[in-house]
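Treating backbone geometry as a discrete language has practical consequences that deserve illustration. The sequence in question and its structure tokens are set out directly beneath this paragraph.
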Amino acid sequence: MFGARTHGPLPLQRKLPRGQLYLPDLRRIGQGIVASLAPPTRGARVDALEARFAGALESREAALFPHARVALLEILRALDLPPGSEVLMTPVTIPDVVNAVLVAGLRPAFVDLDERTCNMSPSSLVERASPAARVVLITHLSGLASPMAALVEIATTRGLVVLEDCSQAMGTRYRGKMLGTFGKAGFYSLSTLKPVASFHGGLAITDDAALAASLRRAARAMPVPTRRWLFTMFARDAILHAASHPLPFSIAGYYGMAALERLAPAIVDELQRGNIVYDAARRAARVKRKTELAASFFAAYTDAQAALAEGCLDAMDAGNRRRVELVTRLHEQLVAAAVPGLVRVNPLGSPTFWRYPLWTEDPEALRAALRRRGIDAARTNLCCASREPAFAEHAAATPNAVAFVDRMVFLPLHPNLDARDMDHVARAVIDHLRGPRKSG
């Protein structure tokens, strides 16, 4: 079923981490740490970076925030919608995206994904849209473009404001047009493992001058963080970058990760979220209904963070092209071997593949098999909010979203990998599925 077995011994192969900080120039980390020792400021460097982001993402205006969830909250507040208005959205997200909707005085209405596309189903959007709906929040997961033509047509017909969550899709296009520019506004994450990273950070883009002015007023009113907090975040990123680079990961990181996966997998999940220190209370409250976002989320975006993001923005296009090259090699081998559960890519989009998803009946068996071959594949760190007790009032049947969270594995994919690494991953997946424990 999966093609002929490759003969001969396996070549010596380095260990492959699940993710890698997108910091193209190690000097930027050092510069960031040095900058974080000075009193934090939000000034000309942030303003200049906003202008650069607007140009790079083909938008008229941009505003930098401390987090993507804060960018969304401020966008919703600026829209000044009637209280209780519905925001149509996919449930596969971080909990605080749902909380941002609720804190803004609105109601989430969960729309299912299409099967194995990662993105919103147009037919489910039609089914879920009620007279109370005012906004459709389109989330582009895994660097894959949503079916924007169909979704925007539905939104236009029903008079819905279109917002785009591009946290995992910076630089991705649909029919040649940049994601984030199809509606009223788009927003992005600049957190640790994103292609443009500045440890924490969020970005909003819009062509609406009045909305942009409102967003900038909100961003500039936020207090700057403490020097200690800023230094701690930069130091954390330096540690994570070193630990997730393929060379140190092959020497030591892989073995520590493999042990933690057996003994304390919750710690690995926290590391995947960028948390070096495991906090049981934080994990227990990860999916929680909030009446306000924590005050710590509103520390202003700083010039020191802008210095770090500049280098990542310089390398964004090259990094996107590199991931596409790698995933093409991987995907073609999996297709040729008739591997089940492959992602369905929208032919009208130009995916950047922030992650490569693979659906399987037994994800933990696949992850364990890959780990034995030195490959650290990840679960998603997103929740399916439509089934979470914290959001029970807004529960909905979203079977494809459930499958994304429960049955999907992210195969390693980042610019520091090479063609041989992709061959190794493809061979490991095919060998596992050809063995006694078949999935898909």
Notes: The chain has a mean pLDDT of 89. Residues 237-290+315-434 form a domain with the Aspartate Aminotransferase, domain 1 fold (CATH 3.90.1150.10). Residues 259 and 331 are 29 Å apart (CA to CA). DSSP finds 16 helices and 14 strands in the chain.
